[in-house]
UniProtKB/TrEMBL annotation, chain A:
The glycine cleavage system catalyzes the degradation of glycine. The H protein shuttles the methylamine group of glycine from the P protein to the T protein. It comes from Nitrospirillum amazonense. Its cofactor is (R)-lipoate. One of its GO terms (cellular component) is cytosol. Pfam families: GCV_H. Gene3D superfamilies: 2.40.50.100. This is Glycine cleavage system H protein. The glycine cleavage system is composed of four proteins: P, T, L and H.
UniProtKB/TrEMBL annotation, chain B:
Belongs to the GcvT family. Substrate binds at residue 200. Keywords: Aminotransferase, Methyltransferase, Transferase, Transit peptide. Residues 16-263 form the GCVT N-terminal domain. The lineage of its organism: Bacteria, Pseudomonadati, Pseudomonadota, Alphaproteobacteria, Rhodospirillales. This is aminomethyltransferase. It is an enzyme of class 2 (transferase). Residues 286-364 form the Aminomethyltransferase C-terminal domain. One of its GO terms (molecular function) is aminomethyltransferase activity. It comes from the Bacteria. It comes from Nitrospirillum amazonense.
Amino acid sequence: MTIRFTEDHEWISLDGDVATVGITTFAQSQLGDVVFVEVPEAGRALTKGKDAAVVESVKAASEVFAPVDGTVVEGNQAVVEDPSLVNSDPQGAGWFFKMTLASPAQLDGLMDQAAYDAFVEGQH
Amino acid sequence: MVTETDSPLLTTPLNALHRELGAKMVTFAGYDMPVQYPLGVLKEHLHTREQAGLFDVSHMGQVVLRGDGVVEALEKLVPGELKALKEGRIRYSFFTNDQAGILDDLMIANRGDHLFLVVNAACKVQDIAHLTAGLPGIEVEYLGDDRGLLALQGPTAAAVLARFVPEVATMPFMSMVNASLKGIPVTIARSGYTGEDGYEIGIDGARTEDVARLLLAEPEVSAIGLGARDSLRLEAGLCLYGHDIDTTTTPVEAGLTWAISKRRREEGGYPGDAIVRRQLAEGAARYRVGIQPEGRAPAREHTEIQDASGQTVGEVTSGGFGPSANAPVAMGYVTAANAAVGTPLSLIVRGKALPAKVAALPFVPQRYYRG
C-alpha cells in the first residue's frame, strides 16, 4: 500500500486498483471542528487539482482537491452523517472518497510521508 | 496573507496571556487577536452557553464624553433615546450618516458626570474623529490602548463575578457601575454580545491580565476566542458591523428600530432622520432576516438568495454553523416581499440551490438577566 500527500494536505492511499482519499491530520487540526462534509457521487470524473469534495468548520468552508485524475468509486457516507470523524480519525474512518486512477504514474509526483512531514514543518 | 496596511500589529494587554494559553492568533481590525484556544471554536461556543466564557475585547474603543449639554449634543449624531437614559444605564445605538446609513453601532452609558461609549475596533479612529467634529465644545477622551475590556458571558457568569464583587448579582441588564475587584478598580456593565447573561469589565491596561487570571482560575471559566464570539452572536441574532450593517443599510432595513424611541422617531434631529421616518411610514425595500437552511450545508457571507421563482432577492451577510442550534444558521437581507418568517428561499451554494426559510431571530433564546 502506497500513501502519498499533496501540498493542499490531501492524502491518497493506493490498495490494488482503488485509492482512498482524505485530508491529513495536520489539515484537520488547522480547520478545527468539522461540521459539514460533501463527498462526490460514484462515477464522477475527477481532475487532479480540481474540486472533489467540501469540508466546512464552524468558521469556514474549504475545498478538497483531487490528488490525481480518475473516477470516483464511492463517497464516504459515514463522514457526511458524522463530520466529526474527520477530526477524530482523519487518516482512517474519516476518509472522503475512493477512486480509480486514470494514470497511476501521477502518484510519483506527490510527496511521500517523509517529504510531507518536512513540508508541514516548513509551514510553521 | 495580505493585510490592509503595513502598520505594525496592535496588541491588547492580554497578548502574552493568549500565547501562554495556546491561542491561535489572527489579525482582526489591526490587532493581534485570539481566534480560538486549544478547546476549539465548537467547544468554546458550547462552554459559553453552558458555563462561562472570558473574552478579550480590549481592541474595542472605550471613549468618555464630558461637557455641558453632552446628551443633547450626542443625540445629534445618534437616534438613541439619551435624554431619558437614567444614570447608570446603558443604551445600544448607532451613528448614522445623511442617507441614514450606519457608520458604526455602539453602547452608550450615562455615568452621571459623563457619557461612556464602547465602539467597534475597526471603526474607532473614524468614530473619534466623527465625535470630535460633531460635538463642538465637548471633551472627547479616548481611553486608548491603555485600557482593557473583558467580557464574561454565560449562565454562570453572575455567580462567578459575584464571588469577587457581590453587588453584581442583582445589577439590571444594561446597567453599569464602578467597582473594586480584589482591590483593582473596574467598571462593570451587565451587557454582552452572546445572547447570554454576562458582564463587560473595563480595567486599567496594567491590571487587565491580573483580572483575567483571577476569572480564569474559577472552575466555570474558559478563555474564548473571536471564532466562538462570532458564532454566539450570530445565533443570538446580533449584528456584526461591516457585515450585517454598514453605511449602505439603514436602521429600518436592519430591523433595529427598537433602538429608536417614539420621541426620536417623531422629533428626528439626527443624520438621515427623514429617511428613517419615511421608511418607518412606508416600509423599506428590504429587510434583514434570519435564514434557516434546511439541510446541513452552511451558507456563508455573500451567498446569493433567490425566491421560489429563481429571482435574486438578496444576499447572506453572516452565515455559518450554529453549535447550539446544531444546524447551519444565517442572516441576510431580502426584498420586503420575502421577509416574512416562513418564506421559502433558495441559497446558491457552490452553484446549487439549497432550500431555506426565513426564520425568526434569535436562533437560540436570549437569556439576559431580568431580575
